[in-house]
Amino acid sequence: MARSGLNSSGSDLATAELPKPKVNKESLKRSLRIFRYMLPYKAKFIVGLLMLLLSSSTFMAFPWLAGKLIGAANHEPLVLSNGWVLGINQIALLLFGIIVFQGFFSFGRIWFFTQVSEFTVRDIRRALYGKFVQLPIPYFEQNRVGAITSRITSDVAQIQDTFSLTLAELFRQLSTMIIGITAIMLVSVKLSLFMLLTFPPIILVAGLFGRKIRVLARETQLELANTNTIVEETLQAINSVKAFTNERFETNRYGTALDRVVRTALKSNLYRGGFVSFIIIGLTGGIILILWRAATLVYNPGPDHLEVGQLLTFLLYTAFIGASIAGLGEMYGKVQSTLGASERILEILDEAPEPTHHEPATGLVPTSIEGDIRYEHVAFRYPTRPDVPVLTDIDFHIGAGEKIALVGPSGAGKSTIAGLLMQFYSLSGGQITIDGHPVADYDLTALRRQIGIVPQETLLFGGSIRENIAYGRPGATDAEIIEAAERANAYRFIQGFPEGLDTLVGERGIKLSGGQRQRVAIARAILKNPAILILDEATSSLDSESEMLVQGAMDELMQNRTSIIIAHRLSTIRKVDKILVIDGGRIVEQGTHDELSEREGGLYANLLRLQFELT
Ligand SMILES: Nc1ncnc2c1ncn2[C@@H]1O[C@H](COP(=O)(O)OP(=O)(O)OP(=O)(O)O)[C@@H](O)[C@H]1O
């Protein structure tokens, strides 16, 4: 059988570091398209934003009122513009009221933003999944499954973070900064300018320091992971290590890796130490500088004089501004990751799908297919290996209802010949016709509905046996499912399970034997009732009873249908109308079993003899 087509290696990519794009106009413009998924929920978003602004601004009134409270303690009550005088008690009450409001608005902000993010992310995941299943098979061969699934898991999660947290944070930090700076300017322009020239640069340097430390910490982690890999490898293959007397070699290898860990860890700690002393000297120094300047202003009378209450207001606002600047630095990294994630998601959403499920159908939609198949000089190369011709000049005819068998050595191209009928790939030359029409003229979905496949290895989906059989025709009635199971010689063993058709199979259910799985697949195909059948015989041998049951089911299935059998055991194909012997991607012999077995020195006669000798 042709390889499943899925490139299953590299699931590790899901967790690997992915490149982050630069934040610039171009990348922003490209990635912002992801926001169209948010549009249906824009009303909720606006309400959330309003709540956010309200919660930020109520919170920003806190330092102002706290300053007034200290002022009131200094016998300077707060006098409002309408003449009301507020003393300590009233101001404290007001402060309390503000906090209650802030709590309420914060709840609203979280409630609305998380709704927007949950719904948006659901829609993006749905769109991605819808696109995945419509992408042509070569896409899955060229991209690793791990990388594809991480688009729908980690990349979407990254974006979810943005919708629920980062965006809100960004707005909050910005509004805090704007309100904060305006407020301190109102308190004292001189002190504000002094603060703005000292504090933000210190915080920015601290942010850069922090980023460098994170990078180094990640490097240390990676080095440590390397050492663990060595331990795992060695322990798993301890027999080989000992047999090759490589104990010393392995110990040295591990030792070298450990040294690398220490080197990177020490470098990282050098920065960490530097960071701590920078914070102590730089940041606290900056605070001392501002306090010194502020104390001078409080101490000296004159036009720039500050009251103690004003000083408290100023310091609280400054702390908020400082926190928001630090927060904005962190935000940059998040925005960068989000841009990367949305670009990767949009790339998939922009891929061209297979032309299936186009409603109304785009091509020829016959009400019934007879099943007369012609391969005319078909040539084929897999898109992943365009330099290797897999099939050359395949030319044959199967009349409607006839049965042919493809035989030949492993890798000869049998599965590929049969699979081309499904149009998973485009041909490199020649054409295939069904009932006289080139397959490309048919509507893809309509055509695939007429072809049934019983693969070598049947994959059952997680669910009940009933659902697995009904996969052949969703919506089939119980009676139809039971009839199909009976005709596929499967009903007896299904009834043997206490839950019958409701028995769960797949990863979380019971494990069916190879023969049982095949009979479920046959029941599925019987239910689908296609005009054309592709049967890929299992290579792994079944016990003789199971083989008899499977063979009986296959015979039942093949009745009145054009069938292509990819045969591994020649004993099962004596009755077919024609046998095509394939070798190296070409038809090297064709004829009935009797004709071919009598051909002296022929490949079929040889294979027959080999199998006979083996059994
Ligand atoms: N998806 C794929 N991508 C690239 N090459 C492939 C793919 N599937 C099969 N091939 C290659 O095409 C050739 C024909 O494979 P195919 O599976 O059709 O042979 P087969 O005769 O059915 O073999 P078997 O009897 O072992 O199932 C082989 O060389 C195989 O390596």
UniProtKB/TrEMBL annotation:
Signal peptide: none annotated. PANTHER family: ATP-BINDING CASSETTE SUB-FAMILY B MEMBER 10, MITOCHONDRIAL, ATP-DEPENDENT PERMEASE MDL1, MITOCHONDRIAL. Its main location: membrane. The keyword Nucleotide-binding applies. Residues 46-337 form the ABC transmembrane type-1 domain. It is a multi-pass membrane protein. CDD domains: ABC_6TM_bac_exporter_ABCB8_10_like, ABC_MTABC3_MDL1_MDL2. GO terms for molecular function: ATP binding. The chain crosses the membrane at residues 45-66, 86-112, 170-187, 193-210, 270-291, 311-329. It comes from Hymenobacter terrestris. This is ATP-binding cassette domain-containing protein. SUPFAM superfamilies: ABC transporter transmembrane region, P-loop containing nucleoside triphosphate hydrolases. Pfam families: ABC_membrane, ABC_tran. Residues 373-609 form the ABC transporter domain. Keywords: ATP-binding, Membrane, Nucleotide-binding, Transmembrane, Transmembrane helix. It is found in: Cell membrane.
